[in-house]
Design a protein that fits this description.
By secondary structure, this protein is α/β, with parallel strands linked by helices. The chain has five helices and nine strands, in the order H-E-H-E-E-H-H-E-E-E-E-E-E-H.
C-alpha cells in the first residue's frame, strides 16, 4: 500500500514537472495575426518585476551585493552596481536582439530598439534571472525567464499577444552567464515564432 502511494505521488510530481516545463516556452494569450501583418517591431525591455537567484526582487539582490562588496573594500559595491546596471544595456538586451534577428530573418521578422515608429511594440520583461556558474567541481546553468508582451505602440493598453519564454545556457559564469541566457532566450523566441507561423500557414 505504501509503495503504491509513493508511486502515485511520484507520478503526480512527474506530470506536474512535465506541465511546468511545457509551459516554459508558450503562447499565453491574444491573437497571432499580427505576425502576418507586420514584420518589423520596436523592442523594449523592463526589469520591474525581476527576481535574481535566491532573491525575490532585484532590489534585494542589489542591496545584498553592494553591502557585501563595500564591506570588503569601500566603494567596491558602488562600482559593482554601475557594472550591473550597464550589463542590461550592453549585454543582456543586445544579445537577445542580435540572436533573435539572426533566427527570425528566416520569416522576415526583425526587432529594433530604435524603431519607435513601428505599429507594434514587443516588450521583454524578465521575471527571473540566474546568472549561474561554471567551475571545475560544480556548475549551475544560467537561466532567464521572460514575459513577452506585444501591444500597439501608440496605445499600450491595446495588448495583442503574450508569451512566456525561457533562455538557458549550461556553460559560463557570473561574468557572462546572464548575457548568454538572454542570447538563448532570443533564439528560443525566434524559433517559437517560426514554428507558430508554419502552423498558421497550413
Amino acid at each position: 500500500m505504501k509503495k503504491s502511494k509513493l508511486f502515485l505521488i511520484g507520478l503526480i510530481n512527474l506530470i506536474f514537472l512535465s506541465f511546468v516545463n511545457a509551459q516554459e516556452n508558450a503562447f499565453v494569450s491574444g491573437n497571432l495575426d499580427f505576425l502576418k501583418q507586420e514584420k518589423a517591431f520596436f523592442i523594449d525591455f523592463s526589469y520591474d518585476q525581476m527576481a535574481v537567484g535566491d532573491f525575490r526582487t532585484e532590489s534585494d539582490y542589489i542591496q545584498k551585493k553592494v553591502s557585501e562588496q563595500n564591506n570588503t573594500e569601500p566603494g567596491k559595491g558602488d562600482k559593482w552596481l554601475v557594472k550591473w546596471n550597464r550589463k542590461k544595456g550592453s549585454q543582456f538586451e543586445p544579445n537577445f536582439i542580435t540572436y533573435f534577428n539572426k533566427k527570425a530573418k528566416k520569416i522576415g521578422v526583425k526587432v529594433d530598439s530604435t524603431a519607435t515608429n513601428s505599429k507594434y511594440t514587443i516588450l521583454v520583461k524578465p521575471y527571473y534571472l540566474e546568472e549561474g556558474w561554471d567551475v571545475v567541481v560544480n556548475s549551475k546553468p544560467a537561466i532567464v525567464r521572460l514575459q513577452i508582451i506585444v501591444f500597439e505602440t501608440i496605445d499600450k493598453n491595446k495588448q495583442i499577444a503574450e508569451f512566456r519564454i525561457t533562455g538557458e545556457y549550461y556553460k559560463g559564469g557570473p561574468m557572462a552567464g546572464g548575457a548568454l541566457a538572454f542570447q538563448e532566450a532570443g533564439k528560443t523566441f525566434a524559433k517559437f515564432l517560426i514554428k507558430t507561423m508554419k502552423r498558421m500557414s497550413k
